[in-house]
Each structure stands twice: as structure tokens, then as C-alpha cells.
User: Which sequence fits this backbone?
């Protein structure tokens, strides 16, 4: 047998118990957005709320397909437009207030991860007698939601097949990820063709986010099972093929499809089964703080913070980086790959002011101690931010 | 980047549309069989039918855990014992007749794939006003089923997380695989510790069946996406690690767990997404005919027929075997690996009579033309059986 023998440092495999339960139906492929109306009608819905971002729903052709399909099925719809990346709680509140006046049967996101996250929050908030931020903060449990049935137009977060939503509250300076088994969408339609018109930088930032979902698990520590390491390497190689292909030709269906499918699989929980801690996610926390203060995409925050985090923690535990270097690429090559795609890799590039370092560190440090490969306290966080500088 | 560049012959990727919808909840890990009663009680069930094979439910400790958990939750149960490998329709009919007198709320398989397949058929037959074989043959559609909530004690077929059941009818000389979206179990508990007491030959035969589920897709033809090829290779390497580890120590939890989880993932549909034909499955059809006439396990039928099938079809299309040889092992090494595990690799070993060759070929030929890598007619089937001789 060639390759794949157990790594020498492997100590434990498939150690923790887990539950797999993903009740989402995913319809994947060409031309499927036109089916959304039939699917919504099949659950008996008469009236829905459409949630969208900016121009992309129109530019991609998704709005046209979805609205025609709804009309064909005589489904009434109201629209909430204007979801931004790093979606805000304000728009969620606005949508919930509108539902109090005009109730609907289903929430229908047409957009990327931010739009799906917003839809999930609206679906939960519509059934809660209080402010949505209580649910986000876990002060009240989510006990009931409206069904979410959506069309994905930008892949990255796997929100279309997971039970997670991330919301930002500028007033409280918080960006919080919340979960509930009730937050799985009932239906997600993924048509890779709807992603042909995405700006190149969004394809790159999304791709880096997808890689980060894999790498947060790859760099969990020493106890990652060989099976999962190999799985992660398959996904990382896939993204390293697809992103350059899509920069060269954004209408390459095969690369769009593979990119989209890896995105969905990378953060729907399936890469965590058997893992001790279900991933490290320090890079995400560092990135969240950054995008809270600066108007940058989640992916850009990751391309800056992730290599710095790896560089720092590998001083304490070099094992995962050694494997990564051998099987994928070295850390310098990773940085230069991100740069060759046009992604930022230093804080200076995105014009972070030096005296904001402490403020960012303070925000992240609210979550300290954090991390699994190395426990991070405030002083560690400062060091990582300095490397990223 | 090391490795994983696109294979030269790769022409298309992620070409076909697909739907992912697996409503099964899988609880995976140590000590979980004790939770079955709570789970059954949570859907409001008061009375269930337990379905089991022979001694393994007792020997593994599964029966003890399940019956105590049911009693603790005050759930009444009736028992059907005696499911055989390659399960017969007769026992299914017997169970359905019993349900006509004593109705239950849930069907609870405690066993391996054959027990789960039997439970699925009983769950469908109990709600059908006619003979179960009509549903198997597709003469009537499956429109309603009882919920199936089970405990797996032998991994191989993925019946615990798919919508497939295979039944044998000796009277009509048929072994038929039937599917319906309603055949997904509602709950499957997979505790690798319950598989510690499996006989070595069952671990080997099951492991070869799992490898076959991967290889039927690996050898589909030239249009397998690079992503899936790499995925298949991860799974095959995993089984090539686990099987020898379990022969050496059947109580190796890590190897049991990895084996069990790969089994579940290998035939729950997820390895077919994006694939043109969702796998070849000629080896399975050849194996089904063999186990119809001889009392051998499904895995043994595969260890004989699969290498012969690969040898034959590779004359017409050498490409997948070339990749397999480079990344996993050559065909001779595959045969000697199966033999080193104690599995049969020729028909003579299992005492097939030479004048049965035509009879077996006739049975398989009912399904001809079949196959995707090479279309097989009756004369091809004869050639494959001769190689297997």
C-alpha cells in the first residue's frame, strides 16, 4: 500500500462520541433555483419573506428565477433587502418587526452565508417574544423557528447546511456565533452557476474561509485521527486547485461546483466527528474581532490572522505544521499563495492603526483563555497580532 | 503543493445534479445502546418490535443494554429472532403477520445490515395492504412506513444510514435491492464496542464489503472527479489499516470505531454525489447471484468476484486500475491481501460446482446489459466467472 500509514505522533483516533443529525435537504446542481417555488408549495406555504443582500441576487439571475418560481406557484412574498457581510442585528430586528405586522410561513434567503445567517436569526426571532439578541447571547433558549428554505448564491460558510448563525452588534461591540438544532435550513438549493458573477475577491476570500474551516481542525493539536488528517488534506488540495481555476475563469462550472460542495461539507459538522475538541477556531475569533472594527470580509480577516496564529502556536507544538508542510505546503508558501490571489496577509495592508492593536486584543481577550493546540491568554493574543502586523 | 494534481485523464467533475437528504439521526460512540429507550420514549412510543439475528445480540451485550433501557422507559416489546445473512423474505412475512395481531409503534433492529434490512422491510410491509414482495419488486410504491430506530452491532452495509434494503426470495431465485426515501431509519445507534465479539471472518468479510462500496465507484469509468478519487483513496487506506489491526486485536476501539464510521459513510450516498452513474455495482450483482445459490456471506462473494471483474473490465478500460495500482496497490496484491486475511478469492475454494457456472451466469444475465466502466452482456459475465474460477 502506498502512503497513508499512521503518522508517528498519532495517539488516539475517533475518541469522542458524536451525533450526526442534519435534517436539511440539499439540492445541488444546475438550474435548480427554479424549483424553489414547487418545494415551498409542497409544505403548504402561501406567503414567504424573501431576504437578500445587495445587487448579487439580481446580477446572478437568482432573483429572477426565484420570483418567477414563486409566482408560478402563487406564493405571495415580501422582501427584505440589504444584508451586509458580517450581518448586523439591526436588519434582523427590522425584519422581525415587519413579520409582526405581516406574518409569513417560510423565510427564504437568496444570497450567501450572511443572508442565510440573517434568515436563521429572523426565523428564530419571529417565534420569540422578546429581543433577538437574548437568543444570540443564549439568555433564552430557541424553542421554535419558522422554516428556512433558501437559494445559495455564494459559498463559504456552510450556513446552508449547518445550525450556526453569526451576528454583529455594533452597539455592544460583539460578533457572536450562536447555534441550535432548530437553525438547520429545511431546504438549501445550491446552483454553482449562480456564482459565476461573484467578484474575484469574494471568490478568493470565500475560498480562504473554506480552507480555514478545514485548517482550524487540522491544527487542533496532536490527537487528530489519521483518517481526518487525510480527509482535510483532500479538501485543502481541492481548494488549492479550484481557487486559481476560478481566478482564471469564473465561469468554470466544474471548479465552481467543487468549490461550492467543499464549502458545504467543510463546516456542516462532518469534519469534526471523532475529533476531540471539534476544532480550535482561535483564528476565527481573532478574525471576528478584526472585522468588527474594520470593514473587511471574514475571509480577508482570516488570510491575515490564520498564518500568524499558526506561526505563533507552532512554537509550542510544531507537530501539525510539520505534517502540513510535508503534505500541503510550508507557512511561507501559504502566505505567498494567499498574496498571489490578491488577499491581504498583514494588518498594515488593511490600514489597521497601530494603536488599535490593544483594542482588538481586548476584544479577543474577552474570550480568553481559548484554543486547543495552545491555550491563548491576552499576552499570546498580543503576540499573534504583532506577527500579523 | 505536494500531490493531488489533477489526473491527466480527468475530463469532467461534479457533472450531475444531486439531492442530499438523510433524515437519519446517528448517535455514534461508547455506551450509547443504553440510550435507545429514552429515544424511543421521546417519540411517544409505548410498544415496539425488536428484530435480531442469532446469538450476536446476546454475545455482544446489546440485547442486555437494549432490553434494560426499554424496561426503564416502560416500553413493551415483542421479539423476532433469527434473521440470517442475505435475509429472507419469509421472516419478513412472519413479522408482518405478527404485527397484524399485535401492532407496535416502532421497529427496532438490534444487529447488522441484514437485521436492519429486515426491519426496513417489516416497517414498510406493516403499512401495506398486500404482499411485501410487491414492494420489493416495485410493483407498488412504498407510501408509508413505521419508524425504524435501531442499534447496530456489525458494520458493513450502511443500512443504518441509507434508504436501501436487500431481500432474498429463494422460491423465485431472486436477491433484490429496493429503495425508498421512507426507508431511512429514524435513529441508528452505532457503538463500536458492541462489535468486539464479532468473529474474525465477519470482520474481514464486512471490511471487504466496505471496500467494495468504495471500489464500485472508483471503477465507475474515466469520469470520476479527482475530488472523489482522492476521497475513495482515503477510505480504502483506512480499511487497509483497520482490518489487519482488528485481526490482531478485535477489541481495538480506535480501529473498530474507524471501521464502523467508514462503513456508514461508504454507502449512505455521499460517495456518489457528483458522480455520473452513482457507481458501477457489477461486482455486487455478480456477488448477489453467488450468495443466492451458495450459503456464503456477501463479503466473501465480493472478495471472489470483484478482483475478477476488475481484471476483465480493465482490458477494455485500463485507466482506473492504473490509478488504483499507483495509489493503492496492484490487482495481484489486492488478491493476496484478501487471501492473507483468510477471505476466499476463487470459486473453487467455496466449492462452486463447475456446471453451476451457467446457472449463476443466467441469474446475473437477467440484469444485463449492466455496468458503466464496460457494458456487460451474458458472454462477458461468463468470462468474469471463469476468471473467478
Assistant:
Amino acid at each position: 500500500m502506498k502512503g497513508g500509514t499512521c503518522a508517528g505522533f498519532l495517539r488516539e483516533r475517533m475518541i469522542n462520541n458524536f451525533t450526526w443529525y442534519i435534517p436539511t435537504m440539499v439540492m445541488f446542481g444546475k438550474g435548480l433555483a427554479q424549483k424553489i417555488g414547487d418545494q415551498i408549495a409542497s409544505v403548504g406555504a402561501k406567503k414567504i419573506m424573501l431576504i437578500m443582500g445587495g445587487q448579487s441576487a439580481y446580477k446572478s439571475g437568482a432573483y429572477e428565477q426565484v420570483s418567477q418560481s414563486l409566482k408560478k406557484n402563487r406564493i405571495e412574498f415580501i422582501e427584505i433587502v440589504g444584508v451586509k457581510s458580517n450581518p448586523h442585528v439591526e436588519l434582523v430586528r427590522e425584519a422581525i418587526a415587519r413579520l409582526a405586522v405581516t406574518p409569513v410561513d417560510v423565510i427564504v434567503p437568496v444570497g450567501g452565508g450572511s443572508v442565510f445567517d440573517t434568515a436563521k436569526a429572523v426565523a428564530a426571532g419571529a417565534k420569540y417574544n422578546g429581543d433577538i439578541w437574548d437568543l444570540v447571547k443564549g439568555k433564552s433558549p430557541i424553542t421554535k423557528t419558522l422554516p428556512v428554505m433558501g437559494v445559495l448564491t455564494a459559498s463559504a460558510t456552510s450556513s446552508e447546511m449547518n445550525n450556526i448563525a453569526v451576528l454583529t452588534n455594533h452597539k455592544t461591540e460583539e460578533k457572536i456565533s450562536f447555534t441550535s438544532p432548530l437553525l438547520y435550513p429545511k431546504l438549501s438549493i445550491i446552483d454553482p452557476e449562480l456564482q459565476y458573477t461573484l467578484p474575484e475577491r469574494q471568490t478568493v476570500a470565500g475560498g480562504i474561509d473554506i480552507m480555514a474551516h478545514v485548517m482550524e481542525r487540522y491544527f487542533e493539536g496532536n490527537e487528530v485521527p489519521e483518517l481526518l488528517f487525510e480527509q482535510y488534506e483532500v479538501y485543502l488540495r481541492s481548494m488549492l486547485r479550484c481557487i486559481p481555476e476560478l481566478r482564471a475563469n469564473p465561469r468554470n462550472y466544474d471548479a465552481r461546483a467543487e468549490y461550492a460542495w467543499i464549502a458545504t461539507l467543510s463546516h456542516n459538522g462532518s469534519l469534526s466527528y471523532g475529533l476531540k475538541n471539534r476544532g480550535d477556531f482561535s483564528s476565527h475569533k481573532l478574525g471576528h474581532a478584526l472585522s468588527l472594527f474594520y470593514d473587511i470580509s471574514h475571509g480577508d480577516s482570516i488570510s491575515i490572522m490564520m498564518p500568524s496564529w499558526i506561526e505563533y502556536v507552532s512554537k509550542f507544538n510544531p507537530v501539525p505544521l510539520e505534517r502540513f508542510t510535508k503534505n500541503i505546503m510550508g507557512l511561507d508558501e501559504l502566505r505567498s499563495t494567499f498574496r498571489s490571489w490578491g488577499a491581504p496577509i498583514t494588518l498594515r495592508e488593511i490600514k489597521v492603526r497601530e494603536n488599535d492593536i490593544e483594542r482588538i486584543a481586548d476584544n479577543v481577550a474577552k474570550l480568553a483563555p481559548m484554543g486547543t493546540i495552545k491555550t491563548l491568554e491576552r499576552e499570546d493574543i498580543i503576540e499573534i497580532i504583532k506577527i500579523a502586523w
Remarks:
- The longest helix of chain B spans residues 226-248.
